[in-house]
Amino acid sequence: MNLTEKEFVKFLSKFDEHPFDVKIGDEVSHIGKGESEFTVIFHKIPSMKELLTSTSIALGEAYMDGKLEIEGDLYHALNMFLGQMGKFSTDKKALKKLIFSSLTKKNQQKEVSSHYDIGNDFYKMWLDETMSYSCGYFKHPEDTLYQAQVQKVERILKKLYLKEGITLCDIGCGWGYLLIEAAKKYGIKGVGITLSKEQKKKFEERIKENHLEDQLEVRLMDYRDLPESGFKFDRVVSVGMLEHVGRDNYELFMESVKSIMNPGGLFLLHYISALQEHPGDAWVKKYIFPGGVVPSLREIINIAGDYQFYTLDVESLRRHYNKTLLCWNANFQKHKDEVREMFGERFIRMWELYLCACAATFMNGIIDLDQILFTNGVNNDLPMTRWY
């Protein structure tokens, strides 16, 4: 082993909470105490400069390019390794443009489209029939992904106390399943907004298929345009959209929601959270969610109070998201040949790394999933106890 390789192994040796082996050529180095949990094979090692600039990008790109292989289960290895992400190196100055990207409407439209407009045919392969691209709710260990997504939507709709004639806005509506269920089961009238042309197209198809043209509509719209829209709603829901807003715009987001709500209305916010405020992972920002930032629970609660949003309920679905991601990855693995034909091998390795890494970070508590129910000002007409 040459000097560069020894220096590389020394860098990895700090990630020693779970024992693993590092194989470079014919040389195997053991890190940590005890029997190895997994083996990482390097066909070509990243440079120290790359590792110190961003450990996440250096190792992520090595995996994407086939320079790094995992001997054993990828999720298991990541679950053992990523609990130590606090030891990763990130040069925020060198990566300033990547980590702190522009929050303009034009740039955020571009960032959202880069992920959600990959194509509906791609997402159909590994999402369930509801086309829900957010955390499911598993009532029982044996629940299917479809059952979990149906149950998640049912849970949200119950929390919103819906009834016929109530108006509901879904900010970041995805492919529209939540609004469709709300319209069919509760007789609400709703508007969904999204920045994804592909999602809008599919949602419009679903509205026609379900004959809900008199109840639902979907608009290609930025949340920042809501105050001038003239809309007023009894209920607002946002599922998995806040992560795209950016830390400097959280107050603007809450202000925009406030502007379209009737007094005493309910607002359910479902989003990936973290214990502390950090700018986000560099690899995820570069390849998966450009501009994505994960808020902390405390900062959202704090901002909500400034806009007279009263907190009624907070629920963590962290382990539900871990299981959701593992289900997505299992589905993705079944369609790898089709995805390879569409996007190539590097995309496959990138996407499975994304799904497994996210599952691991939820399991390790690096990120969480919070559902917060707010009321717009005081509402004393709701039940005094939990209803679910």
TrEMBL record:
Name this polypeptide is given: Class I SAM-dependent methyltransferase
Protein's GO biological process: lipid biosynthetic process; methylation
Record has Lipid metabolism as a keyword: yes
Keyword S-adenosyl-L-methionine belongs to the record: yes
Family membership: Belongs to the CFA/CMAS family.
Coiled coil residues, start to end: none
One annotated GO molecular function: methyltransferase activity
Domain DUF7884 residues, every copy: 10-92
Residue numbers annotated as active site: 358
UniProt keyword annotations, A-Z: Lipid metabolism, Methyltransferase, S-adenosyl-L-methionine, Transferase
Superkingdom of the organism of origin: Bacteria
Protein source organism: Anaerobutyricum hallii
SUPFAM superfamilies: S-adenosyl-L-methionine-dependent methyltransferases
